[in-house]
């Protein structure tokens, strides 16, 4: 499909940067336009797929990226272009269904992962959860479509999320490894490709286990060290 043909598609399944540029009246969470330049650089260097513009895979990828951007940065769900707002529902691993307002208030991390041994969603706000994972993955946490198994109206697809664990996660040391999540989703969409519902399936436990694999940070360890250790260092021979 040519660029001209692609531009005839609904805005929300075009490039995410174009959606941002066209969202002139949006209420932005941080009072500024989101900047995905670092994400685009990571995608260019580390994606395992390169879907041709206008293919079903590229359209699904653009739609989900637009949805993710709107959830993360547009505070008013009524301004989200990617969904049918009054009907939209999302669930994870067959769990509770949430509305667009739920997402805008609590954030995707809190609703998609809930409470567990290594992450307490009930103790996190939208802002604190976003800050936590931005600290954990300072180079970003890109997302790509791997395969699309069925087209509209029920789009079933496999995806990959990944990031370089170079920042501290809570009080756990970074392993410097690439943390990868592989999952599947089912998106029910309208004729003009707006999302009515989303079902996500992925292993929360495996993801969080990787974030605690490096053990407690050195500052935690020092807290339980010998109280006289600093005194003994005075007499350490060179």
TrEMBL record:
SUPFAM superfamilies: NTF2-like
Gene3D superfamilies: 3.10.450.50
PANTHER family the record matches: PATHOGEN-RELATED PROTEIN (PTHR31723:SF10), PATHOGENESIS-RELATED FAMILY PROTEIN (PTHR31723)
Protein name in the entry: SnoaL-like polyketide cyclase
Origin species: Nostoc minutum NIES-26
């Amino acid at each position: 499909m040519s660029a001209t043909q692609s531009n005839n598609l609904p805005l929300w399944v075009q490039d995410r940067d174009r959606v941002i540029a066209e969202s002139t009246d949006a209420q932005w969470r941080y009072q500024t336009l989101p900047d995905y330049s670092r994400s685009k650089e990571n995608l260019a260097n580390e994606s395992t797929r390169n879907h041709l513009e206008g293919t079903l895979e590229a359209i699904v990828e653009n739609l989900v990226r637009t949805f993710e951007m709107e959830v993360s940065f547009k505070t008013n769900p009524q301004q989200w272009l990617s969904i049918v707002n009054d009907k939209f529902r999302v669930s994870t691993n067959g769990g509770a269904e949430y509305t667009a307002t739920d997402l805008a208030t609590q954030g995707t991390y809190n609703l998609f992962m809930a409470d567990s041994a290594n992450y307490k969603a009930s103790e996190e706000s939208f802002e604190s959860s976003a800050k936590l994972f931005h600290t954990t993955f300072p180079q970003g946490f890109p997302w790509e479509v791997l395969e699309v198994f069925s087209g509209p109206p029920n789009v079933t697809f496999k995806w990959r999320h990944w990031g370089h664990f170079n920042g501290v996660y809570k009080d756990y040391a970074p392993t410097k490894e690439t943390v990868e999540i592989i999952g599947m989703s089912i998106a029910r969409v309208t004729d003009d490709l707006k999302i009515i519902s989303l079902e996500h399936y992925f292993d929360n436990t495996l993801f969080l286990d990787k974030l605690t694999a490096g053990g407690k940070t050195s500052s935690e360890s020092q807290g339980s060290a010998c109280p006289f250790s600093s005194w003994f260092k005075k007499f350490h021979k060179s």
